[in-house]
Amino acid sequence: MIAAGASSQADLDLVVWGATGFTGRLVAERLVSHGQGLRWGLAGRDVEALHRLREKIGAPADTPLLVADAHDAESLRALVSRTRVVLSTVGPFLRHGSLLVDLCAASGTDYVDINGEPLWVRDMIDRFESDARRTGARIVFSCGFDSLPFELGVHVLETQARKRWDAPLPRVSSRIAFTDVGGFTAGTVSTLVASADAARADHATGALAADPFLLTGGFRGPQQPRPTGPEFDDRLGMWAAPWVMASINEANLHRSNALQGHAWGEDFTYDEMMLAGPGEAGREIAEGITEVMAAIVAPRVAGAPAIDQAGPVVGGAPSYKVLVLGTDADGHRMTATVSGEGDPGSDAAAAMALEAARCVLHDLPDAPGGMWTPGALAPAQIAARLIENGVLTFSAFAR
To answer: What was the pLDDT predicted at 194?
Structure first.
């Protein structure tokens, strides 16, 4: 079935933009093994690198290679015209992503990305959402580890709460636990650096970056919890530390809530931390995590060396779990769990983004155009694809 905003002239279902980058290559590899039935292509600015990638990952020799530059409208317009969905992995998006969103919104081509840059998303909404609504283009941001597991975790929690108590749980916290996960990818760190630089460069921009309601279209909810240092979580008996992605997920979750007509309540609050463990050892780990996270978002100030890593260093088989804890004023409590295998900043993020793109392509023929979060556009459909393809598992129970 043709997607609502897709061009009838498109000869491809899906194009991976930034295919020769770290995450783009992981998406391309997954397409080789999971892309049956899709007409897909690889896109980037270096044709020789695209040829090498196609050969190295074992893609069919006739896999289309599309050459374009992120800042050249003619080349990007040619790319956009050939496909029903663009999956973009090219960041930092505030430096390299705006023209592509502009062209997708104007042409009616659906778009999915892995960005974690709320300031940029706000700019895209302000500039291009009216075009996307007019043409039917579904522009779906933040379909990687930020923020898809957190959005879907809250969706599961609130869905089960409504079934049990006929009301949402307005006080929600997420706690992230990792096993054998290494550092961030260079692209992720570059994105965090670019966002921090933009916020430091201008006072007004910095204030926007700190606003949990940055993406809600003018709605202002209650004051949000903002952990700034290690805290002991009595509910779990563990220490937790501030999580570097918290402000990203917080902004996206409040947008999801707003796009759904505040289905989680206009008094919805959200906070997010990283679990460090119990006892004195957990406290020390939480203190160390706090220092590391602070250094990541301010490397230029600290005079850190240039980022040159190709990807995360992982010891063992990585996995992760997100605990989503919900409560209300009547004492109702529920926990939802989102679990996954793979490094969340690399192969897991690639798998999430691809399944979100496939959902936009196949499952949403009547969804309107606009600027979406995955948790507002199609939470149940995306979750079903992630479960079916072994990317994430979900559970929920009342406490």
So the answer is: 53
Q: Are 90 and 97 in contact (CB under 8 A)?
A: yes
In angstroms, the Cα distances linking 278 to 125, 231, 235, 306 are 42, 11, 12, 35
Least confident of 48-52, 248-252, 316-320, 395-399: 316-320
Band the pLDDT of 310: cuts 50, 70, 90: very low
CA–CA gap between residue 249 and residue 147 (Å, rounded):
5
In the chain, the amino acid numbered 110 is: D
Max CA pair span of the chain = 62
Q: What per-residue confidence (pLDDT) applies to 201?
A: 57
Q: How far apart are CA 390 and CA 246, in angstroms?
A: 25
Provide the pLDDT confidence category of residue 378 given band limits of 50, 70 and 90: very high
DSSP 63-74: --EEE--TT-HH
Give the least confident one: 170-179, 254-263, 342-351, 371-380: 342-351
Q: Is 232 helix (H, G, I), strand (E, B) or coil?
A: strand
Distance of CA 103 to the CA centre of its chain: 21
Q: Are 146 and 250 in contact (CB under 8 A)?
A: no
Question: How is residue 15 written in tokens?
Answer: 């194009």
Query: What is the end-to-end Cα distance of the chain in Å, rounded?
Result: 42
Quickly list DSSP for 62-118: T--EEE--TT-HHHHHHHHHTEEEEEE--SSHHHHTHHHHHHHHHHT-EEEE----H
Give bridge partners of residue 269 from the DSSP assignment. 171
Which sign does the torsion angle of CA 342, 343, 344, 350 carry?
negative
Q: ∠ CA(133), CA(103), CA(142), 5° rounding? A: 70
Gyration radius (Cα) of the chain, Å = 20
At residue 271, φ and ψ (nearest 5 deg) are -140, 160
